[in-house]
Amino acid sequence: MKKMIFPRISGKVRPALFDNGLRVYVIPKNEAPTVTVQAWVATGSIHEDEFLGCGLSHFLEHMLFQGTEKFPGSAISDTVTHLGGYLNAYTSKTHTVYYINLPAAYAAKGIEMVDDMLRNPLFPEEKFLSEKDVILRECAMYQDSPDSVLYEKLVAEAYQLHPMRHPVIGYREKIETVTRAIMCAYHAKRYTPGRTFYVIAGDVDPDRIMEILNRQAGNWKMGSLAEPFLPQEPPVAAKRETMIRFNDPMTRTACAWQLPPSTHPDIPAIEAFSDIFGGSSSSRLTTILKNEKELALDISSYLYSLNVSGLAGFGAACLEENRQKLTDETFRILAELTENGPTEQEIERTITQQTTDYLRAMRTETGLAQIVGNAVLNGGGIEAADEYLPAMRRVTRDDLIRIGRQYFQPQKATLAHMLPLASKVRRKKAKAAAVAAEQPVMKKMKGGQRMIYLRDAALPLVDLFLMLPGGAYYEGKTMRGTTRLIAAALTAGCRKYSEKEFNEILDSHAIDFTVSAGTASIRIAVNCPKDQLPLAGELLCDLLSAPLFPEKAVERERTAILEELKVKLNAPDGLAENLLMSSLFAKHPYGDTLEESIRDLTKVKAGSLRTVYEKLCLNAGKAIFGISGDLTEKEAENVISNMIASCKWSNAVLKEPAPPVFPQKAVRKVRKLEKAQAVMFLGMPGPRADSDDVPALDILRTASSTMSSHLFQSVRNRNGLAYYTGCINMPGINTGCIAYYAGTNAESTEKLEKLFHEEIRRVTTQGLSEQEFTDAKAAILYRLDSSMQSPDKRLAAAVTGEFTGKGYQEAARKRETLEKLTLKEVNRIIKKYLSVPGKVTVLVTPEKR
User: Fold this and answer.
1) Which residue among 114, 310, 353, 657 sits deepest, i.e. has the most Cβ atoms within 10 Å of its Cβ?
2) Which domains are seen in the chain, by residue range?
């Protein structure tokens, strides 16, 4: 095995321990003027003591975003947005992390905000109640997810005594008992300086950061030092197995083995063994179960290494008749691996991949902060970050054989199987299932608008989905970005409500409301409890009929969009994609450059948005309303009719751009950026959104974009040329784009381009193989089935299909269309599109090689 010199992280970290127990780790990283401010709190779901199962840690994370003493209401999120930053958090079984990524010039402000979140949350009563409702809905969502239910059952079986067995979110009946007083007491007890450490990485001066934090948090009282008792989980002495039935057509099986704590010296070897067994596209489980024997439709593995314990295992989806064969074959593969050990090639491959992934994480400030945070929390100190790579490289074949025999014995396994509802149950529920799977119905309204109705009585929720014309396709050459600005500012106030009032109503009534803009549309999606539909409908009516577009909000959103465009212009992948589109589509709106969009958006007057909105977006012939939920078609029609009646509609025929004139010969564009990464696209014209060729090209995209694809194996595994690679298929209103892409280094671009052309030559002469075709089709059908379980996705697909000209039933017919596709037909369509002479090659490469 090759010798490697590993960069040391601990030498770059400036640590400090304050008198109150608070620890700080500052990592100067000066490549970009940005910083990440992260606060790690050693409190998770296992620490909830007498309130175990209440999800207090997760609930508390939600509440810390609801206002603090210095920053009441949404002031923190608003401030972060104004500064161009990003704010988020997550909760696990052992810890909670809050982080803000923002320009380095505002590091002090970021620290101030995180500190106030941790120490001085207000816990407003009304927000407490609304967040409880949100979390209860989240629980319901998890219980509707077969994967989530299966994993919860697996973990509960794997741990029978330790608090690790309980889900982070908690249990519904326990969450319902949580009061504001319980929450405040839990916060006071667990959020203390001794359980908290900061990791701050980026373009900062460590001395200044230490000074700021000492001034900000040095007076934080030590608080409670007591820790709850965590019982020792007895070792698994015999195989555990459980089986459940679930209302889902797919059969699933999952397996887990208990692991020692993350500080155990065997962990690097365990990770290597787990990866060889099932952790990659070339692992034994994937190769044999999915690719060779086709017992698994999908398979994935996981490994959680925490400071108290851990789990490793896998999950697979399969046909019901293959479940037992899949399980038996899994243990046969495990026995062979444990008995004979892995090959030297397997060991080298997994260690190289693990090492490379670790090194890649070190390239960014967020990646570095995550490594340091995990080292402190799970490794016992920052030095653990330096020990990981050398320990991984020291793993031998004998180590892996020992690991298999010690930790992955069949009798130590826990299995959970999820089967579809029994056939007897299916017959009883045949009528109900038919209702749940009812097809969408479309009706043309009096004004010319169209309504799509989809009945779904599974849960007391209603979805509304509206598409209006907009985007570059309709804007014209001097209005680029106008409808994106309209979409961003649409919720900034209407005739009856200010922006603040509007958002408070949404939060208080658990109404999810999003507005987004695409290349040819504005999309509005609303989800609400059924009993809040009248209010949600009223809000949408007011928003559609009387948006205010206040100048201050418009300028705020304009600035945010312009900054996003500038960031994209300065990012290798964003610039390369835009350069591809502008080179391929030329004067067509799909070819608008980022520079043109920035120029035009800068000139748009706030006062003109209302006019553009009414003339372009409120077009009766193009507007499509969708509604889904536990309501009759007549009830749905009344809701939509009220929305339509509230607006003043245009009946003008919208002018559409002429079809693009594509290059007739090969085009090559090179742009240089002062970045370390090179990005390449090789693109050509693609299908219209309403073309019958789209499914075949989706098969090409899927077959070319997995880690087991011929492209990935050629570019990444055999030649080591790219960090990532794949294929995209982007259908458009009157035409689209197909492209191969990869992120690489400057020295590899010539060879990468050659491999792209070799791949195109392969699929246009030989075509996809039977195996590629079968695997890709199965993957698409699985994703289709999975997405079609969600009424909001089914509704959105129906509305989108109608808007793009394919028809509202297109999504419902997609499975039948895919199943009928033959390999011969797919290869014929691939050859038709990929054989054009006018391909465009785009390369964004570092300024200095």
Assistant:
1) 114
2) 10-217 (3.30.830.10), 240-420 (3.30.830.10), 435-645 (3.30.830.10), 667-846 (3.30.830.10)
